[in-house]
Amino acid sequence: MPAKGNADSRVSALPIFAGFAGLAIVANLVTGIGYVALHDGASRSAAPSRPVAGALPAPSTATVNSLLQRRSHAVLAHDRAAFLATVDPSGQAFRAGQEVLFDNLAEVPLTGWKESLADTRPAVAADDGWTARLRLAYRLRGYDRRELVYTEYLTFDRRPGTGWVVSGDGAAHGLRDDPQIWSGGSLKVVRGRRSIVLAEDGAVAGQDARARTAELRDIADRLDQGVGIVSGVVGDRWSRRVVALVPATEQKAEELVGDVRNLGDIAALATVTGDAGGTATGEDRVVISPTAFGRLNALGRHVVLTHELVHVAMGGARDGKTPMWLIEGLADYVGYKDAGVATKAAGRELKNLISSGDMPSAPPGRTEFEGSGDRLSAAYEEAWLACRMIAERYGEDTLVRLYRTAEGEPGASGDPRIEDRALRTVLGIGSARFDEEWRSYVRGVLS
């Protein structure tokens, strides 16, 4: 797993060729895996401040805890009046946002929801109230195996007749909550047999409400279908359930996945979220980027969502050690399997490289997945064909066993001995022999 708070977040690219996007040229839409570094509470918390002149006296810890307990209980009990009774009635804009928040949460199948003080010292103590850093913990019923933990900020103020209430968040002081799909406009929830889609209900590129609902239902249906496809290859050693987040804008998608890269050409991304508690666990989510995903036709959506499900099933967003050509190649192999995609069409960038005399000597390493453009697309094609070759010559079960063997090998990220040991253990050949067979295979299928 990438270290939290650093630049080791990973994004994978799946080139979507013209047949997917309905275009006359290659559309470099990509999918990805990554770790949400921004969900590390320690990296986002503010240093406790000293009270400023005119600041209100701080509420007691017991008072704040009581307010937070009332809010948490109201969320789980679907008691709107009790929830809003904790909110300042005079702050109309903030109160309206809290009304939307409660209504959104009422649509989500929560099996737990708890706001609590993360620090008894104020993040900010000023004349507009006492702002505290909080620990938000929740779990989605039927999907999350563990509690997800995030950081948020609330401001507490004392009002005549009502006592201490929640009067704002930390935005006025530059303190940002860990983003949530339900923290903006209205939320729409679509349930599948093995999937749940949480989506902002805003219009996307002029969509009307009916088109938005149909799109979300299509996503849920494709994820349900994809669960069976993925399990048919990698087995049932995973939850076989998935949560998809569908924001209305690229900006919101970028907030949800962390500052990985601009998502303008990324159709979807599998990520791990909810680790502000520092336990290095969290849960998998598939985040869909609206503009790029909206450019895909039915075939493209099938391949992209199946690809992301492989990352969820195999823990790709948590894996900092398995060779990237296995992580991305297996996802592409399952995504393309039985999709009716011609090999030369899906491998066109690699074919062009070979035609220009630039035949790679081996499947791509991690650095090859950090580029852009045609060379990045070629890296994914190389990985895909490496995994397809293994499946054809040794069987799908052997391909999956190779992945899991490499994942379990000792060593650090990028250590070439991991790949060599796994290949010798599972296929009976070392890296040099494998690379030779792969080059011959690639030339054969793309010639």
What is the overall pLDDT average?
A: 86
CATH topology of the largest domain: Zincin-like
Query: How many distinct folded domains?
Result: 3
* Secondary-structure element series: HEHHHHEEEEEEEHEHEEHHHHHHHHH
CATH architecture of the largest domain: 2-Layer Sandwich
What does the oligomeric state look like here?
single chain
| Biggest sheet character | 6 strands, mixed
Strand content: 15-25%
| Structural shape | elongated
Distance between the termini: 38 Å
Transmembrane segments: 12-38
Keywords: Membrane, Transmembrane, Transmembrane helix
InterPro entries: Uncharacterised_BSP
Organism: Actinoallomurus bryophytorum
Give an overview of the whole structure.
The protein is α/β, with parallel strands linked by helices. It has 3 domains: 28-37 and 181-320, Zincin-like (2-Layer Sandwich); 47-173, Nuclear Transport Factor 2, Chain: A (Roll); 321-447, no CATH class. 42% of the residues lie in helices and 17% in strands. The chain contains 16 helices and 11 strands. The strands form 2 sheets. The chain has a 6-stranded mixed beta sheet, with helices on both faces. Strands 2, 3, 4, 5 and 6 form a 5-stranded antiparallel beta sheet that branches. Helix 6 links the parallel strand 8 (195-200) and strand 9. Helix 6 (209-234) packs across helix 9 (298-314) and helix 14 packs across helix 15. The longest helix has 26 residues, at 209-234. Keywords: Membrane, Transmembrane, Transmembrane helix.
